[in-house]
């Protein structure tokens, strides 16, 4: 399994989707649905786009876990990466969310699936910080370099530096916080709209970091492992070119392949030289999701990566042998009591 690129993902298939009015104030990427378009039509369009993304990822050998969501009070539930992240070694993190109508997107059935199908040792839950007005919206607020153990974070209402440092202490990352703004001086609401870190390539709108010294520090930290840095423009960021994610798929004959998942809109904004730089190490998988992008997020926001070891199911013979071994070590009397006090 790749340290940086997960081979499995979680997607939420929501039957109702509308741009969330509770997040519009600080999300400059958000837009209204076309005039005259009904909520039913918007939801139907988004549902088709979710299914298309799931199919495209399966086609390149990525394991996809899809959870249906029929709760019509969760307009942004298609973006699970804001409340959940998983980490090598068996740890899961659950995050505090800025918008109150997003906080019930957290789902116990998703966590139970992870525990049953993957090796989960602990769940670290930061959501109790919400009443204090302190937020860190997962891998939306942070872009994680799992190889060099760096957490890149643009400061915002949704990325509190104190929680970032606490996360980094708990999960052994180096925090690298910075300010990032657009040409109008509006802070970037989520780091993952301006940055994507892959194994051998990184996409980053470095010019949106106004502090020249900090910008250079970020550039040097990204390149320390020899990554190619594809520098994105603000215009490309507005087309969601930064909201991509590297995944690890499989070819038909079982060989590992790196893929860079992004929207078709994002790919269209890239120059040929940028596409070539990405394709030196990744196959680009682009899916058209114009309806979902109305909510201010794109493909990266839709994907919660699974960085956990898969739990291999025991074959029936292995299971029978394991039960027999347990019974042999812990004999019981006919009435069901352990012999000699074994437990």
UniProtKB/TrEMBL annotation:
SUPFAM superfamilies: Pentein. Pfam families: DDAH_eukar. InterPro entries: Amdntrnsf_FN0238 (IPR014541). Signal peptide: none annotated. Gene3D superfamilies: L-arginine/glycine Amidinotransferase, Chain A. This is Arginine deiminase-related protein. It comes from Nocardioides furvisabuli. The lineage of its organism: Bacteria, Bacillati, Actinomycetota, Actinomycetes, Propionibacteriales.
